[in-house]
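[Help] Beginner question about ligand-bound structures

Sorry if this is basic. My supervisor gave me a protein sequence and a SMILES string for zinc ion and asked me to "get the holo structure". I don't really know what that means in practice or what format the answer should be in. Inputs are pasted below exactly as I got them.
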Amino acid sequence: MKVKNNNRPLFRDNSYLYQNSYARAQRRRLAAFVVLVLLVAAIAGVVMGIRSCSARKQSKANADQTAPLNSDAGVAADQNGDAGDAHAGESDVATDVVEKSSYKKPKLIREGHGVLIEVTDPGAIGLTVKTYDASTNATISVDKRVKKQPVTIQVSQANKVRPKVVALTFDDGPNPGETTSILKVLAAADVKATFFMLGRNVKTYPDLTRAVAEGGHQIAIHGYSHDSLAKMKPPKIESELLESVKAVKDAADVDVTWMRPPYGAVNSMVYSLLGEHKLKVALWDVDPVDYGRPGASVIASRVVKRVHPGAVVLMHDGGGDRTQTVKALKTIIKKLKKKGYRFVTIDQMYQLIGQQSD
Ligand SMILES: [Zn+2]
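Answer (accepted):
No worries, everyone starts somewhere. Holo just means with the ligand present. The predicted complex, written as structure tokens, is below.
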């Protein structure tokens, strides 16, 4: 019995142990279940998370795709707006579409060298038009409208002209003071010259422009504003040329065929547009720097010393006080006549070069 009694507690202990271990096992199973549930929930959460994330990415991608479509709608709205069909909401979108032109300089092919230049092939200035949404900066379209093509210029060697001829040229006029004085000096000496006029001055002084033409002189253009054409975009270059040509035509009924770019600054885009509008370029090879006002006698001696058969002399009748130039002109004409020189216009000089090469 003792043994029994000894066993009981053992049994009890065992049963206790058993009961205890049963409860533990149950708790373990419960815990395992909870862990499993949490695990499933976690996996489900992760999966859902990935799904929702990719869904978000997808919707963003869709949004990106719809952006240009919306912009296209804007273009359409703009066109509708032009047609007089006004939709308030759509026209707000339409104002965001911006067009930007970019130009590419063509290659310049130069044949010969000298100061009288004719464009024999105007080539083409490259043009790309880009449209984009101003609010998002997203590109809508890129249109390469004109492919650039090389410009060819034929440069004539006026300085190789054999007869003793010289072309006197005056820039920056017409100007009521000095242009009038110069016309008197030239008329008295029966000398013809070439005047490279600024379009804005021609517009201000049409009567003086006409007086230059009536004096038998050649009228050419020197741009409208005197800004450098080489720093302008093609539409501005073109308006500088055409406005000046029109101003001379309106004032003196003269068709201009020659141009002198301000500062002599010219590039392939300028040549292309000059060629397109049948304008030739006259540079110079004798520059006494009369605008520096070194004194009438210095201006005169510089010109007389440097003149050669076929010389193109640069002087000024506008852009500042040119009284020294007027004074120097009398001496220049007198001394060059003594040396046997004949005075021609740029057109006459160019014809002489043409006859010579024939
Ligand atoms: Zn000038």
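A couple of things worth pointing out: Residues 154-357 form a domain with the TIM Barrel fold (CATH 3.20.20.370). The longest strand covers residues 97-104. Feel free to follow up in the thread.
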